[in-house]
């Protein structure tokens, strides 16, 4: 007796053959066997079954022969499953669909869509696919492939609680029972928006790659009334930037400094360019940039070298001057044959200790609260659950990436 699963498998294969013939015209038996990972004998049996079902499929012999449908025959778009309908919303993100375990589902959905289109629109869809490609992650970034993403996604779909072991940005590990409300792909990095059970403080954000273990529980939960993931995410991003950039600095920039302002981070540079005044007769322009702290601003602005002058706050101006003097002493000593010492560079605490450094563009990451913000953080911003920020802010569970 043929099992129900085997019947479903064959039905799915027959539909796949029909759609391939509909989309590609003539297809050889070997091509079908390779694509569907079955034997040639199975393909011949399936073609006979299609013919017996009234599908006008016929074979042509010869070197370029194969199976094809009669002219003017076109199947209608039928049989789309709930999973395939979900995959439609990820049609522009094949990598994201694969991360969520929907790669094959997405491929099947696209094939059904192509099969349902008239020839002229099908050709147009093919041209679009060949000419446009979305690559979400930034340059020089490792692909974020969290090992527990599929399990978490399953809990999101089914509205079931999860018990997770989570490593914060400061390396402490905590156990949490979460109510997963949604997943967000931001700059190539996956984030989980979830409520902590019985917490009552509202949704937080967690970087999925920091989940060290996960168990999907049998307990279901109710989503908050009126919760909208896109709206929550937009609000969270605004709140994150406001929380990170608590202060500002007034600076002067040369023409080269203005062109290099992007080094201090996208958000800070954008604000700096927006507030930029007209250059003076010497070509220097004054502006104000948001900063997380004086310490972080020091290391961000030092990247601009002699093309920036800090005017305010006075503390930051003095730190930059002390750091520049320490560097001058060190390089003068090196050019004279001396070796110098590491302490000279940081000028005995004037320029900050190694622990205060938030390397330019250093990787920040979502905190236990979730941390949403940029995955790749600039030297101008490093709080939140970032290595320096979590310890400093005292909010171990309310900051981002």
Largest sheet: 5 strands, antiparallel
Q: Could you estimate the helical fraction of the residues in percent?
A: 40-55%
The CATH class assignment of the domain at 149-230 is: Mainly Beta
Overall spatial form: elongated
The mean pLDDT is: 75
The run of helices and strands is: HHHEEHHHHHEEEEEHEHHEHEHHH
**Distance between the amino and carboxyl termini:** 55 Å
**Could you name the CATH topology of the domain at 149-230?**
SH3 type barrels
Rg, alpha carbons: 29 Å
CATH architecture of the domain at 149-230: Roll
Q: How large a portion of the residues is in β-strands, by DSSP E?
A: 15-25%
List low-pLDDT spans: 339-377, 381-399
Total DSSP E strands = 10
Strand order of the largest sheet: 6-5-4-3-7
What does this structure look like?
With 401 residues, the chain is an alpha+beta fold. Among the domains are: 4-69, Arc Repressor Mutant, subunit A (Orthogonal Bundle), CATH 1.10.10; 82-131, no CATH class; 149-230, SH3 type barrels. It is 41% helix and 18% strand. The chain contains 15 helices and 10 strands. It has helices spanning 4-24, 29-36, 40-52, 82-88, 94-99, 103-116, 119-131, 149-158, 229-244, 255-259, 266-274, 294-301, 314-335, 342-345, 387-393; strands spanning 57-60, 66-69, 160-167, 173-186, 189-196, 204-207, 211-220, 247-253, 285-291, 308-312. It has a 5-stranded antiparallel β-sheet. A 3-stranded antiparallel β-sheet has the order 9-8-10. Strand 1 and strand 2 (66-69) form a beta hairpin. Helix 4 (82-88) packs across helix 6 (103-116). The two termini are 55 Å apart. The relative contact order is 0.09. The model is unreliable at 339-377 and 381-399 (pLDDT under 50).
């Amino acid at each position: 007796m043929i099992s129900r699963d085997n019947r479903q498998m064959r039905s799915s294969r027959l539909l796949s053959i029909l759609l391939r013939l509909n989309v590609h015209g003539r297809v050889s038996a070997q091509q079908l066997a390779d694509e569907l990972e079955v034997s040639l004998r199975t393909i011949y049996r399936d073609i006979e079954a299609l013919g017996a079902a009234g599908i006008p499929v016929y074979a042509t012999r010869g070197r370029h022969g194969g199976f094809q449908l009669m002219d003017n025959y076109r199947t209608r778009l039928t049989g789309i499953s709930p999973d395939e309908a979900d995959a439609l919303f990820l049609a522009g993100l094949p990598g994201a669909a694969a991360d969520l375990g929907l790669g094959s589902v997405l491929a099947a959905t696209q094939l059904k869509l192509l099969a349902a289109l008239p020839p002229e629109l099908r050709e147009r869809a093919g041209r679009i696919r060949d000419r446009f490609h979305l690559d979400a992650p930034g340059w020089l970034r490792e692909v974020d492939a969290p090992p527990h993403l599929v399990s978490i996604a399953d809990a999101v779909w089914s509205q079931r609680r999860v018990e997770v072991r989570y490593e914060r940005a400061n390396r402490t590990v905590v156990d949490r029972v979460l109510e997963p409300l949604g997943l967000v792909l931001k700059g190539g990095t996956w984030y989980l928006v979830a409520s902590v059970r019985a917490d009552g403080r509202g949704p937080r954000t967690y970087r999925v790659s920091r989940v060290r273990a996960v168990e999907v529980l049998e307990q279901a939960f109710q989503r908050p009334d009126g919760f909208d993931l896109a709206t929550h995410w937009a609000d969270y991003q605004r709140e994150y930037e406001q929380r990170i950039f608590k202060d500002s600095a007034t600076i002067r920039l040369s023409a080269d400094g203005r062109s290099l302002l992007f080094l201090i981070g996208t958000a800070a540079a954008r604000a700096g360019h927006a507030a930029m005044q007209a250059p003076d007769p010497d070509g220097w322009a004054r502006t104000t940039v948001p900063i997380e702290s004086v310490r972080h601003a020091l290391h961000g602005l030092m990247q601009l070298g002699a093309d920036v002058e800090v005017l305010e706050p006075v503390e930051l101006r003095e730190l930059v001057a002390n750091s520049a003097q320490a560097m001058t002493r060190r390089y003068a000593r090196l050019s004279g044959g001396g070796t110098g010492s590491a302490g000279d560079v940081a000028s005995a605490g004037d320029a900050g200790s190694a622990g205060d450094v938030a390397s330019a563009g250093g990787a920040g990451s979502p905190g236990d609260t979730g941390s949403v913000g940029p995955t790749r953080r600039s030297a101008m911003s490093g709080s939140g659950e970032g290595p320096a920020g979590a310890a400093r802010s005292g909010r171990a569970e309310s900051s981002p990436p």
